[in-house]
Amino acid sequence: MTIVLYIIIGLLSGALTGLGIGGGTLLIPALIFILNMGQREAQSINLIYFIPSAVIAVFTHAKNGDIEKKIMRRLIVSGLLSAAAGAVIASRLDGDWLKIMFGVFLLVMGCAEFFKKENKNENEKP
Asked: Comparing 5-9, 32-36, 70-74, 120-124, which segment has the lowest mean pLDDT?
């Protein structure tokens, strides 16, 4: 039965990654609460899982012309630097703190999405 859960969690997380929502928002809690994995291990698996999922999603979005290359280049440099710093910090934090921080992050992001006013962008594709 565990292998079926892994497959279902993987499929759902992959679908969220493809949509650009972020599969980790489902993958990490599923690994922790359904499969009883530790926070640090779940986050590590999420990072490894993200690489092939993101490559496929980026290819698809690039093919559809949805990527703004000027912005992307600026974000990549700062993102790589902060990812390295975050990995060092996460490796030194207790798993319980990581769980709290991730929970607060999800709560804040959920509230922000819930209360966000919709911006109508004239350049958006139909």
From this structure: 120-124
Whole-number Å distance between alpha carbons of 44 and 39? 9
* Confidence (pLDDT) at 39: 85
pLDDT at 72 over 60: yes
Count other Cβ atoms within 10 Å, centred on residue 106. Answer: 14
Q: In the structure encoding, which two tokens stand for residue 23, read together?
A: 């599969």
Q: What distances in angstroms separate CA 55 from CA 14, 65, 81, 113, 122, one per listed residue?
A: 11, 15, 20, 25, 28
For the chain, the C-alpha Rg in angstroms (whole number) is 16
High-pLDDT (> 70) share of the chain, %: 93
Place of tokens 């703004």: 68
Contact indicator for 42, 32 with CB cutoff of 8 Å: yes
* Domain residue ranges of the chain, discontinuous segments joined by +: 2-115
